Every structure is written in structure tokens, then in C-alpha cells.
Amino acid sequence: xxxxxxxxxxxxxxxxxxxxxxxxxxxxxxxxxxxxxxxxxxxxxxxxxxxxxxxxxxxxxxxxxxxxxxxxxxxxxxxxxxxxxxxxxxxxxxxxxxxxxxxxxxxxxxxxxxxxxxxxxxxxxxxxxxxxxxxxxxxxxxxxxxxxxxx
Length: 151
Hints:
The protein is α/β, with parallel strands linked by helices. 38% of the residues lie in helices and 34% in strands. The chain has helices spanning 47-60, 75-82, 85-91, 105-115, 132-149, and strands at residues 6-16, 21-31, 34-45, 66-72, 95-97, 100-101, 119-124. Helix 1 (47-60) packs parallel to helix 4 (105-115) and helix 3 (85-91) packs across helix 4 (105-115). The protein starts with 5 loop residues before the first strand and ends with a helix.
């Protein structure tokens, strides 16, 4: 009988002050009554890199293969996965078009590899709206880049 995977709920958000500029991400991991928050700031990055790195960091934090419901306000991340763009870019050696390279191939490669490990369902949530967990992730992300900017 196959082992049942743990069901984990993840919220992620990325933020940047300027694009590029100091950036950060915020993550909430929930498993049953267990809840963990993670955030990190970076000196010179982009909003899209922070959105991607939030998802990657959250999935890398899982110690065993899991079934995941992942909530993000990033259309960039969710559309690239749900519409198959990232897989197509990888199949074309990280090119979006014959003359235009895909951005962030290093992070997309990491994310696609993690999606081979975990069974992830992506859910888009409206940013800066009524979702308490998304708003908390946004605050964590902003606090993280502000620490970098003020150092």
C-alpha cells in the first residue's frame, strides 16, 4: 500500500523596492496545527525572482514528498506552471522565443525539479486583498527587504 503524503498548505509572496532593488520574500507553511513563517531579504534582485524564490524555498523546506496547496498572488509563477510555459522554456533550452531567452532559468529549473518531488496544486490569490495569510507574507517580504536596505 502506498504511503500517504502529508498535506501541507503554503502561502508565499515576494516584494521588491525598485525593480531591481532590495527585495525579500515571505512564506507561511501550515501542516495541521503546525505553522512556520520564513522570510529572507536580498540586496539587488527583482520582484519576479523573489516570487519564485519564495515558492522554491517553501518547497525545499519540506523534508519528505508532500501534497501541497500553494497560494500565491504571482501570476508570473502560477501562469508559467499552470499554462506549461516553464516546461516549454526548459525544452527549448530556456528560450521563450527563438531570439528571447527566458528570464530566471536557474530558479525555474529548481522549481520544476521540486515539482517532480511534491504534488503541488497552485492557487492564485488577489494580492493586498482580504487574504490574511497572503497579507502576512507580504509584510514578511517587505520587512525582509527593509532590513537589507537599512544595512
